[in-house]
Amino acid sequence: MMTEKQTILLQASGPDGGAEAIARAGEILRQGGTVAIPTETVYGLAADAANAEAVAAIFEAKGRPADNPLIVHIAHEEQLEQVISRRPRGLEILTRRFWPGPLTIICPKADRIPLVTSGGLDTVAVRMPSHPVARAIIEASVPLAAPSANRSGYPSPTTARHCVDDLWGRVDAIVDGGRCTVGVESTVISLCGEVPVLLRPGAVTLEQLREALGRVELGKGVLERLEEGSKVLSPGLKYKHYAPSADVELVRGDSAAYTAYVRDRAAKETGLWAMCFTEDQERLGEEIPRLCYGGMEDYAAQTEALFDDLRRLDALGARRVLVHAPQPTGMGLAVYNRLIRSAGFHITDV
Ligand code: AMP
Ligand code: MG
After folding, report:
1. What are the two backbone dihedrals, phi and then psi, of residue 72, each rounded to the nearest 5 degrees?
2. Quick one: which atom of ligand 1 is closest to the CA of 124?
3. How many CA atoms are closer than 13 Å to the CA of 335, on its beta-carbon side?
4. 128, 100 in Cβ contact below 8 A?
5. From ligand 2's centre to the CA of 339, what distance in Å?
6. Residue 234: CB within 6 Å of ligand 1?
7. Is the separation of the CB atoms in 157 and 163 below 8 Å?
8. Best of 73, 187, 234 to mutate for ligand 1, by most ligand atoms within 8 A of CB?
């Protein structure tokens, strides 16, 4: 059991534009504390990336396995020098096109960044977020290591309320900067091998990365379960993830087949919920409880709603959730990648 902390909640809004909250968060971080901060993707649990003890407190607060590396967040290009030892091929193209924004790039690690931050690897993940509060907090402190601010295994937090639910008493502060607009974690690409590899899909899509770099491979584990004991480029892909307490089943098929399947199952089971698309609503009928997480091809709406809906289903008392799977293209690949893990790879084709 970790000793309980006196968590404080800081409002990054109001008449001073959040200046006081930002200054206070910066101070706590400079002193080696842990602070949950808003970013455009999801809330991150931040600490000084170069301070091994501070970073260890992130792992403890989250209950995160020690070999799962963290992303280092910077506010301007000059900070890259403090974090990486060499600029790999393709870095310039990506930073010019996608930074600040939801793209994390794996590069060779500078010695200044301790191994606890990189999960023991000699590479480091770096991102420059676009969220004004995240940027201001980094400006007021140092480069920040920050994984998603949830308890390990649960859906990522997209509101300060989610961080409070998971981390109150376990971190020094939580900064409320409103709802995250992207809603899923950053895209992760490695530039450390022969060919760039997409390790985690996000709002910057595989298609956009290929347009920028030419060849980009899809990492093992993006679309399927990794085999036991297989060597993984991105350790985070090994673990159960994004899962609410309810049993999630991912259903692949068109609207008619999905809704028929859900109706059939609902006739036999209690506590069953649908997590569906706008286009499914009418066919589902009125009896079956559901959350609608966007239009079938409106991937931006799906990413924004995804984690909040998974958390809400627990609050609503759902026992089993039948989620209609999106197409794994464009930003739909990010939604699909998170959902197969929420479902523990329980996938049904109809
Ligand atoms: P989170 O910050 O919780 O969204 O997780 C960070 C993700 O980035 C995890 O999936 C990690 O495995 C991945 N990651 C971070 N650093 C590295 C690295 N040096 N090499 C490969 N993957 C990494
Ligand atoms: Mg995470």
Report:
1. -95, 130
2. 19
3. 32
4. yes
5. 14
6. yes
7. yes
8. 234
The series of mean pLDDT values per 10 residues for the chain, 350 residues long, is: 92 89 98 98 98 98 94 96 97 98 98 97 98 97 98 94 97 97 97 97 98 96 76 62 89 98 96 98 95 97 96 94 97 96 94
Q: What is the DSSP string of 179-248?
A: --SS-SPPEEEE-SSSS-EEEE--SS-HHHHHHHHS--EEPTTSSSPPPTT---SSGGGGS--S--SSEE
Q: Is 174 in the pocket of ligand 1 (CB under 6 A)?
A: no
Q: Which residues of 189-203 are buried (b: 16+ CB within 10 A; e: fewer)?
A: bbbbeeebbbbbbbb
User: Cβ(123) to ligand 1 under 6 A?
Assistant: yes
Tokens in use for 11? 């409002």
